[in-house]
Amino acid sequence: MNNKNHQPSIEEEEIVQQHVKDYIKELLPQHQGLLKELEDYAAAHHVPIIQGEVAALIQVLVKTSKAEKILEIGTAIGYSAMIMAEAMEEEGRIVTLERNEKMVALAGENIRRGGYENQIQIIPGDALETLHFLPGDYDLIFMDGGKGHYREMLDLAISLLKPGGLLISDNILYKGMVSSEELVQRRKRTIVHRMREYLEYITHHRELTTSIIPIGDGVALSYKKN
């Protein structure tokens, strides 16, 4: 077959080849109990949660950074907050922001069921407003909110991150569309454009050293310089 004029479709284009993703998924220990229940719920109700390989990466980063104070932007059902809490010491604390009232209630119940109610605090409301009123000095910030608003939230987030802290941004390659104009769906064009602006900004930001990792839906790790 001559592929000279063949244009890849979204179904054909993967950030990581599917057989590699499957192999990594098989290697990683499978979650049990409540976390497995939340994974099944998310799949059944089309709730976006972090993928298994991203969850493993975040737990390693939380442990190695010895983060004691974490800010999460985008709670959803509370899955990623519990993933991070599991990797922290008992005295560690997580503040997580969520604007969807249904998700706030559901995440709150899940966090109570997991026994993390003294470790994880949910603050309801739009992050673009809430971020203005939070105290700073977070060791780690996990950016997983509205994809079209990452750039708007970034400067506020950086001001809350202590020097030597880590900013983790999820979904930054957005189904591969960010990397190729040929893959961009018309209705996703604005989000893709904004995500490209965000990546350009964090990779050249004078306060950050950034690495982009093509796992899951794309992850950016940004270290705040001292």
UniProtKB/TrEMBL annotation:
S-adenosyl-L-methionine binds at I50, S80, E98, D126, A127, D144. The keyword Metal-binding applies. CDD domains: AdoMet_MTases. Pfam families: Methyltransf_3 (PF01596). Mg(2+) binds at D144, D170, N171. PROSITE patterns: SAM_OMT_I. One of its GO terms (biological process) is tRNA methylation. It catalyses: 5-hydroxyuridine(34) in tRNA + S-adenosyl-L-methionine = 5-methoxyuridine(34) in tRNA + S-adenosyl-L-homocysteine + H(+). InterPro entries: Cation-dep_OMT, SAM-dependent_MTases_sf, SAM_O-MeTrfase, TrmR_methyltr. Belongs to the class I-like SAM-binding methyltransferase superfamily. Cation-dependent O-methyltransferase family. PANTHER family: CAFFEOYL-COA O-METHYLTRANSFERASE 3-RELATED, O-METHYLTRANSFERASE-RELATED. This is tRNA 5-hydroxyuridine methyltransferase. It comes from Isachenkonia alkalipeptolytica. The lineage of its organism: Bacteria, Bacillati, Bacillota, Clostridia, Eubacteriales. The gene is trmR.
